[in-house]
UniProtKB/TrEMBL annotation:
AMP binds at H203, N204, R205, V206, H207, D253, D364, Q415. The active site is at H203 (proton donor). Residues 127-465 form the PDEase domain. Keywords: Hydrolase, Metal-binding. Zn(2+) 2 binds at D253. Zn(2+) 1 binds at H207, H252, D253, D364. This is Putative 3',5'-cyclic phosphodiesterase pde-3. PROSITE patterns: PDEASE_I_2. One of its GO terms (biological process) is signal transduction.
Length: 514
């Protein structure tokens, strides 16, 4: 049986080049549409132009820094992202898709595809009995901090990090009382979900917890656009939407196999066949988690009425699907277009869902805006998982995906490109709309400052052709300890050349569009 190579272009090089140019043009349109006070007739005309140059059934990967429009494969999803870059730090980008068939034969066994083992309800009972202790946990008290010591808490949680963090998030936002949630069923569900995460370097229960933390942070802090709401989006989203967003964060990578969509499609994995090659992983995460939720002992949303349940399910599905990078450009363009014309109206379900998608997307890649040492640890973990896929591709005589060859991967180019072309447009769109948390007194945004520092570091490393020494196999980087004080802080990532050690230098600058 032939293997499908999803990362190869289906048309000629000439055709691919033309398609990339179309997408670069759409990315430029997104930037223009983000401009405030744009005349309505101009806005309407630009949107029509965008529709005219929107080719279907293509998507793409990342380019390196400050290059002309081009396209290369990127390992996070195996998709291709058409990019344009004018030398500035931030800007709109686009994502499209293509697939083709190769002549490689043989269907491999990629991983053990057995269903996750049913969780031990004794653990859920333990969590239930200790709910008050969890509520007062000294580390969880830091949940409202962007520098939350995620690895230290993982070490102290005894495998219950996700269920404990979910409880704290639901309790802190009054969701438990609002919906009179049965704690037995609540802990049954979230503990079953965390046990459904595989023991992978990156896509594991700690990553799910980190995304949940980011969603919690982004929804509970003050933002300038809604200055009257001191508690942030908590008082603006409906309670059902907020609960759906936190639940989506917890399940968004459930039962992830450690391989990207392109690999599953190329190897004709049963999941790819079942979901017709469309958002394979994302659909699986939702479906597998929902099967767990529908068990009587796990159905913690039993008090929702029919309309609330429909809204909850729709919000969860759409926000998890938004993490598929093939939808990146369309979501971003839709957001920048809408936000440039008016403020989001939270009574409008379309508006609140759009913001929910943006929050989920940013939360999923939030490590780029964490302090340098945390960013370094997450970088090591994602690289380890990429390299494991590259190793398997080599064993299967498949072409090794870009940046997945441990012998030749340019880490600085990989990280810099992803941050510059995927993360920065998200940050920029929210920043321009005054929807990122900032310090009310100083106006400083912790996320942007960290992001600028990290991106500047990777750009410097690439320019200097620095040999990075991330301990991909040695495990030198510590994952934290039971002591919160041992958590890596905002100190600089370090790299080495053959003769010297270098730290992050000057931060990049972020400015609002006038």
């Amino acid at each position: 049986m032939p293997l499908r190579r999803a990362t190869l272009p289906s048309g000629s090089l000439c055709l691919s080049s033309e398609l990339v140019r179309f997408q670069a043009a759409r990315a430029l349109l997104a930037d223009v549409l983000a401009t405030k006070d744009l005349p309505s007739n101009v806005r309407c005309a630009l949107k029509k132009v965008g529709d005219l140059i929107n080719p279907d059934a293509i998507h793409g990967g990342l380019d390196a820094f400050n290059t002309p429009p081009s396209d290369i494969n990127f390992p996070h999803c195996g998709d291709r992202i058409a990019v344009h870059e004018d030398g500035q730090l931030l800007g709109g980008k686009s994502i499209f898709d293509w697939t083709s068939v190769s002549n490689v034969v043989g269907l491999p066994q990629m991983y053990d595809d057995k269903a996750p083992t049913a969780h031990d309800q004794r653990d859920s009972e333990f969590l239930y009995r200790n709910a008050e202790v969890i509520s007062k946990n000294i580390i969880l008290e830091k949940l409202s901090c962007w520098t939350f010591p995620i690895f230290a808490f993982d070490q102290s949680s005894n495998g219950r990090i996700l269920s404990m963090m979910a409880y704290k998030a639901f309790e802190s936002t009054n969701l438990l009382k609002t919906f009179q949630i049965d704690l037995h069923k609540f802990f049954n569900f979230f503990h079953a979900i965390e046990e459904g995460y595989r023991d992978l370097p990156y896509h594991n229960r700690v990553h799910a917890s980190d995304v949940l933390h980011a969603c919690f942070y982004l929804t509970t802090h003050w933002v300038p656009a809604y200055a009257h709401a001191s508690s942030g989006f908590v008082s603006l989203f409906s309670a059902v939407e907020l609960m759906a967003l936190y639940t989506a964060a917890a399940i968004h990578d459930h039962d992830h196999p450690g391989r990207n969509n392109a690999f599953l499609i190329a190897t004709q994995d049963p999941k790819a066949i079942f979901y017709n090659d469309r958002s394979v992983l994302e659909n699986h995460h939702i479906s597998s988690a929902w099967q767990i939720l529908m068990r009587d002992e796990n159905f913690f949303i039993e008090n929702l009425n029919n309309s609330e349940y429909k809204r909850f399910r729709h919000f969860v599905i759409e926000t998890v699907l938004a993490t598929d990078l093939k939808f990146h450009f369309d979501i971003l363009m839709n957001f920048t277009d809408k936000i440039s014309r008016r403020r989001l109206e939270f009574k409008n379900e379309s508006d609140s869902l759009l913001l929910g998608r943006m929050i989920m997307k940013l939360s999923d890649v939030n490590s780029a805006s964490k302090p340098a040492d945390l960013h370094n640890i997450w970088t090591e973990k994602i690289l380890q998982e990429f390299f494991e896929q590259g190793d398997e591709e080599k064993q299967l005589n498949l072409p090794i995906s870009d940046y997945m060859d441990r012998e030749s991967c340019n880490i600085a180019e990989l990280q810099g490109s992803f941050m510059n072309h995927v993360v920065s447009p998200l940050l920029n769109a929210l920043f321009q709309a005054d929807l990122l948390p900032v310090d009310e007194k100083t106006g400083r945004c912790e996320l942007l400052e960290n992001f600028s520092t990290n991106l500047y570091y990777w750009k410097q490393a690439l320019e200097k052709n620095t040999q990075l020494t991330l301990p991909i196999q040695s495990g030198i980087v510590e994952e934290g300890s039971n002591n919160v004080d041992d958590e890596p802080g905002p100190s600089c990532i370090t790299t080495t050349t053959t003769t010297t050690t270098t730290a992050i230098g000057e931060e990049g600058k972020l400015k609002k569009n006038s």
